[in-house]
Design brief:
Elements: H1 3-6, H2 8-30, H3 36-67, H4 72-90
Length: 91
């Protein structure tokens, strides 16, 4: 079982919280009385939630694919995959 499937329940809970935060942000932006500070705080909450999800996924990926394999060639290959992911995240 992959680590994503193993932690599916908690990952989906994170995604659902993010969906609620995005919906609240959208609602605020559609409102005629939207306060810019509130909108900024909601956008920041969405960003924080997305970052938290990414960190949870990266942690699981590191443990499963980089730390756990006994074969050093496999670990090196998976480390390169992780480097590519981190570069994409940094863009």
């Amino acid at each position: 079982m992959s680590h994503v499937q193993h932690h599916r329940k908690s990952l989906l809970a994170r995604v659902r919280r993010m969906a609620g935060q995005v919906a609240a942000l959208e609602s605020s932006l559609q409102s005629e009385q939207a306060d810019c500070t509130d909108v900024l705080m909601q956008a920041s909450a969405v960003r924080g939630a997305a970052h938290g999800l990414l960190m949870a996924l990266l942690d699981e990926h590191l443990q499963e694919h980089v730390v756990s394999p006994a074969d050093p060639v496999e670990r090196a290959a998976e480390a390169q995959v992780l480097v590519k992911l981190l570069r994409a995240y940094g863009k």
